[in-house]
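Listing S7. Sequence submitted for prediction.
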Amino acid sequence: MSAVERHGVGELLAAAGLDPADGVQIVAHDRLASIAFDPSMPLLILPGTGDATTGAELPGRHARRGPHAVLSALYPGAHPLLRLPMRTAERLDALDDAKLARDPWIVEPLDPVDNLASPHGMAAISARLRAPEGCPWDRRQTHRTLRPYLLEEAYETVDAIENGTPADLAEELGDVLLQVILHAQFAAEEGAFDLTDVYRSIAAKIVRRHPHVFGTAEVDGVAQVVSNWETIKADERAERGKADEGAFGGVVRALPALAGSREIQERASTLGWDWDAIDGVWDKVHEEIEELRSASSDDERLHELGDVLFALVNLARWMKLDPEEALRAANHRWVSRYRRVEALAAERGLDLDAMSLADKDVLWDEVKAR
C-alpha cells in the first residue's frame, strides 16, 4: 500500500503544512514531463503508476527527460524536497527518479525573482524593474520606445538560427521573450491587458486555426491546411469588423516590403490567383525587366523596379525559397568577400583606396575563385 493510499492527499497536504485554498500544485511524478507547473508555487509530487525513468514516452516540453531532470531544469541542485508524511528533507541533487517514485514529496516554492527557469519568474522580474524603486531606464520605456528593440531582437534571432549555436538561439529567443513580457507589463500597468491575456489570445488562436488537430475537420495535405488557415483568418477579420479591408488588410503595414510581398503572393495563391506553372512566372520576370530597361523617367523606373522585385519574390515562392534569406545571404557574401579583398590588399602592401576599379576587380576575382 502506497503512502498516498495510507494517508490520502488531504493528510499529505496537512503534513506539509499546506492549505489548498492558498494554492498548491499536485502532479504525479511520472507526469512531471508533460504538465506545466509554476516553481513559485508549492508542488506536491505523488508517486506515479508508470515508468518515468527516461520520460521517453511522455509528450510535451520535456519529452525524453525523466522527472528528476525536469525538476533539475527548474530548481537549483541544493533546493530542498520534503519526503511526506514525515517531512524528511533531501536535496534535489541527492535524489534520482527511483527515489522520487517511491514516496510523496513536497517541493518548496521559489521566490519569483529566483524562479529563473519559468515565465512566471520573468514576469515578476519585469514588474520589479518597473516598480518605483526599480530601474530608471526600464521605468522610462513605453510601447513606442521599445519598437526598435523588438525588431533588433527578432533579426538577431534569425541570425542565430542561420549562424549561431543552440546556446546562441536560446539566448536570442530569451531576448525576444523579454520584449513580449515588458509590453505586457506596460499594458498591465495601464489596466489594458496582462501576460495571461497574451497567453490566452495566442493559445485560443492556434487552437481555432487548427480544427484538424483540435476539432473534427479533416485535411489531405499542407495546401488545405494553409487554405483553411486563410479562411479562418478571414472569418476572424469579419468578426472584428475588419472584413472591408479584404484578404490583404494589414499586410503592407505590418511587414517589411520583401516579406510583405511574399505574404501577399502566398495569400493570392490560396485565393486562386496564381500561375499554372513556373514558366509563366519566368516570363513575367523577363517582361518586367524589359519594361524597367525601357523606362524613361525616374518615376517610371521606380514603378518598374518595384514590379521587377515583386515578380522575383513570386519566382522565389515558386522555387520554395525565402527571398529575404537569399538577399541576406548575398549581403553577407559580398561583405565577406570585400573583407578578404581588404586583407589580400594589406598582405601585398597595396593601397586599396588608390587602386583603379580594374585592379580592384582582379583582387575580387581572385578572392571569389578561392
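Caption to Listing S7: primary sequence and predicted C-alpha cells for the chain studied. Residues 247-321 form a domain with the Helix Hairpins fold (CATH 1.10.287.1080). The beta strands are 25-28, 43-46, 80-83, 88-91, 105-107.
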